[in-house]
Amino acid sequence: MKILQIIDSLTWGGAQKMVIHLTQTFCPLGMEITVINLREPPNPEVKRLLESAGARVYTFPFPKLFSPASFWGILKFLRGERFDLIQAYLAYANIVGSLAGRLNGIPVIGSLRGIGETPEGYSRKRELLDNLALRYGCKRVLANGYIVAEFGHKRLGNIHIDIIPNVVSAAPALPPEERQRLREELVGDASRPLILSVGRMDYRKGFPDLLRGFAEVRASHPTVALVIAGGGDMFDEISSLKRELDLDGSVYLLGARDDVPRLLASADLYINSSNSEGMPVSVLEAMAAGLPVIATTVGDTPYVVQPGSGLLIPPEQPKEIAAALNRLLNSPAERDELGNAAREHIRKNHSLSAWRAQMLELYAQAAPSKRHLIEQYQRK
């Protein structure tokens, strides 16, 4: 069975990680996976992971949504490849993939992966086309969380939306010596309490709130270190705020990283300060690594961070961030309890085997003529 995955970009992010998981899961079953990237050249590590798992990776650049040469290239590519199914991730991919699929008679699975745009990134035209693509151009629509699906119904009306939450794999723990070396590399002294946050630096991630809250924490925990991994449009703004709050030597901005599992294994606790979120892959990964998590009550986060497996706080409240951080920094025993409960919650509710079964059934419903092949994959 030949599957085409189309995605807006192959930078590091939650959607991209799901494409990697899918490739690593389904290529060994015998599926042929091809990935089309619609923006800038892919991140080299993302491309390497996809290709090493067995996928072919191509870029058809769409510097703007209406890029006729690239769209014509995709149409020609599809006509030569005879794909059985297209799965699209994010808005550009939904629009381009649904139209190209329709013109080639290929069923398309569209996606809902968030609950809104940033103010600076909002485009009414793109939203309208995305809604039309999902409602009329896709055989199925997949949401990666329950709140995401609720938001989708507000946009799309009374259509069926399949809900399959994101999956994560637990990264192996670092050997003690390597963990200590990495902590020294990150913050200078391996004995310092190390707080980690991962995410693209844009409006939705709430990093200004995190820095303001952390500034209050440092008064009672002068040796604590906050490490933030992620690039993005707000990197310079966050760097300036760090200097303004006199946090040099306490806050470390790493930029984009391709070794997040190692960073998680080096940390003492994890915080997600988002003010808008879908199903947060970074929180799932932190919980799978056994870290105690502090997260804001946005999107599907409350479905993930259950009572006893982490602390939930309201968004855009630096004082709540400070209170939660102080609470866990003052209580190593509670950190251990929350981390162990978080790991167990992910094991039970976001396992690879359950996700695989759900995805294969979705594929069978979207491409019923291929059910006999999919049933063979289900038995492997």
Task: Give the helix/strand layout.
Blueprint lengths: L1 E6 L6 H13 L5 E6 L6 H10 L2 E4 L8 H14 L3 E5 L1 H14 L3 E5 L11 H14 L2 E4 L2 H11 L5 E2 L12 H12 L6 E5 L8 H14 L4 E5 L5 H10 L6 E5 L4 H7 L2 E4 L8 H8 L4 E4 L4 H4 L6 E3 L4 H12 L2 H18 L2 H15 L4 H9 L1
Parallel strand pairs: 1-2, 1-4, 2-3, 4-5, 5-6, 6-7, 8-9, 8-11, 9-10, 11-12, 12-13
Helix pairs in contact: 1-2, 3-4, 4-5, 7-10, 8-13, 15-16
Descriptive tags:
globular; 380 residues; Rossmann fold; 13 strands; 6-stranded parallel sheet; alpha/beta; 7-stranded parallel sheet; 2 domains
Extract low-pLDDT stretches: none
How many distinct beta strands? Answer: 13
CA(first)-CA(last) distance: 15 Å
The run of helices and strands is EHEHEHEHEHEHEHEHEHEHEHEHEHHHH
Task: Please name the CATH topology of the largest domain.
Answer: Rossmann fold
CATH class of the largest domain: Alpha Beta
Characterise this structure:
The protein has helices at 14-26, 44-53, 68-81, 91-104, 124-137, 146-156, 176-187, 207-220, 235-244, 260-266, 281-288, 301-304, 318-329, 332-349, 352-366, 371-379, and strands at residues 2-7, 32-37, 56-59, 85-89, 108-112, 140-143, 162-163, 194-198, 225-229, 251-255, 269-272, 293-296, 311-313. With 380 residues, it is of the alpha/beta class. The chain has two domains: 2-167 and 351-379, Rossmann fold (3-Layer(aba) Sandwich); 176-349, Rossmann fold, CATH 3.40.50.2000. The strands form two sheets. A seven-stranded parallel beta sheet has the order 3-2-1-4-5-6-7, sandwiched between helices. It has a six-stranded parallel beta sheet with strand order 10-9-8-11-12-13, sandwiched between helices. Strand 11 (269-272), helix 11 (281-288) and strand 12 form a beta-alpha-beta unit. Helix 3 (68-81) crosses helix 4 and helix 15 (352-366) runs antiparallel to helix 16 (371-379).
